[in-house]
Design a protein that fits this description.
There is one protein chain. The chain is built from 1 helix and 7 strands, in the order H-E-E-E-E-E-E-E. By secondary structure, it is α+β, with helices and mostly antiparallel strands. The protein has a domain at 9-32 and 43-89 and 104-137: Sandwich (Immunoglobulin-like). The strands form 2 sheets. A 4-stranded antiparallel sheet has the order 1-2-7-6, with no helix packed on it. Strands 3-4-5 form a 3-stranded antiparallel sheet.
């Protein structure tokens, strides 16, 4: 029997996008309320830890199967955004006949509010054995006094 395209592929992609969007909204709501979310959106989320190490914050994110090129992170104000996206591996051999194929596009997006401002120029991140670690040095309060003009 000839290989036929999956008639439900576009629906699966739509459900995947909706799943990611609901996951992002639930995580934003969780961040704004400061509580634990009761929503479970499966592959659209990943575990994240935020630790205070005195002079820096350390964010640790489980990213199994993601390479450094699959991940992005940014800081906006005091909010850290970490996201990743990877696509299904495509086989070079067109004669492969899968009995079951579930490994498709996967992505996640997480936001976390940092308790204090950080030095964005000194932030660095590494990925090792499926764990993303981001070091965020805190901004040091300067001991210098600044005069304020009074009108």
């Amino acid at each position: 029997m000839a290989d036929r395209p999956n008639p439900f592929e576009s629906l699966e992609e739509l459900f995947g996008r909706l799943n990611r969007q609901f996951g992002d909204k639930a995580q934003t709501w969780e961040m704004e309320t400061g509580g634990e979310s009761q929503f479970d959106f499966g592959a659209a989320s990943t575990n994240l830890d935020l630790a205070d190490h005195g002079d820096e914050f350390v964010v640790t994110v489980d990213v199994p199967g993601y390479e450094a090129d699959d991940l992005t992170s940014s800081i906006s104000g005091e909010t850290l955004l970490v996201s990743g996206e990877r696509e299904r591996e495509t086989a070079d051999d067109e004669d492969d006949r899968y009995i079951r194929r579930e490994r498709q596009l996967q992505s996640f997006s997480r936001q976390v509010q940092l308790p204090e401002p950080v030095d964005v120029d000194a932030v660095h991140a590494t990925v090792n054995n499926g764990v993303l670690t981001i070091h965020l040095p805190k901004l040091e309060a300067s001991g210098a006094s600044h005069s304020i003009d009074i009108d």
